[in-house]
Amino acid sequence: MEKVLSAKKKSKELDRNPSIYSYQLHELENWLVENGEKKFRGKQIYDWLYTKRVTSFEDMSNLSKELRDKLAAHFVLTTLETAVQQTSSDGTMKFLFELHDGYTIETVLMRHEYGNSICVTTQVGCRIGCTFCASTLGGLKRNLEAGEIVAQVVKVQKALDEQGERVSHVVIMGIGEPFDNYDHMLGFLKIINSDEGLNIGARHITVSTSGIIPKIYDFADENMQINFAISLHSANTETRSRLMPINRAYKLPDLMEAVRYYVDKTGRRISFEYGLFGGVNDQVEHAEELAKLVKGIKCHINLIPVNYVPERDYVRTPREQIFAFERVLKDRGVNVTIRREQGHDIDAACGQLRAKERQEETR
User: Fold this and answer.
1) Which one of 83, 244, 340, 346 is most buried, counting C-beta atoms within 10 A?
2) What CATH number is given to the structural domain containing 37?
């Protein structure tokens, strides 16, 4: 009963029935038994949701009419309306999805040699306030329910079904701070990783945080095999606070202590996302600071040439300076790569499409 209640609690902030996509299989099975149904119906329902990918309870034809009516009375089968869809020349697809309450979120499909990766959103807006990000314009509107995050993957997978392809990788780096919506985010991870769900391997999933330290400790204790990334962007406390105001609440030395706890606890390598902003954090001395900060930590640095955002004032680091930064790190024994640019000819920066299309949400 407690597990069923916990699933219902996840959707408490939404004034409507919970999304059935928010329920892990064991939670759904418990609900079925408590409502006079057979436990095995749970796997049948999961098959309809994640293999057949139906959009209505009425389509679940091997369930009784009575059970379909129960499901419709207690749950929402979350569907997302596509408000805008953009396709880049490199195959990147960006979706602006409209939610049931009229708010919009972004989801991005990126094509790689190793498979199709989808970047999902966890919140409508963001309250973290990073000064380089369009996602934070207008602040936080609300958290997404776990099922609304799952529905993004299902919706994009349905688009790929037409091409005989599948979503193979998921990154939680879209609009919002995942650890500011921790319970819903964690439920999402468990559902998409489930064999009966979307069956996406843990090591094909990456979650990123701007540095909510208490949740880093919680996530380490979950001991999941999921890839973990920290949005760092500077090894200097003053500069990081200017780029990321969260650094004033969760200070850099404390963040690095939490990172060491995570690595020691899980034995897994951690990634540091480092956006390069022209004249701000992209000089040789900044690279030397970064190498010193991560020394002795099992980690990888992901250098990100910043996408220009019209609402922000940062400029792109020159190409030769990007390579000079990379060389400094490599010379000091740091594992580093430069992120391949994708979607350069569409609204690629996180939150940019939403800001452009729905100005009333981002004022």
Assistant:
1) 244
2) 1.10.150.530
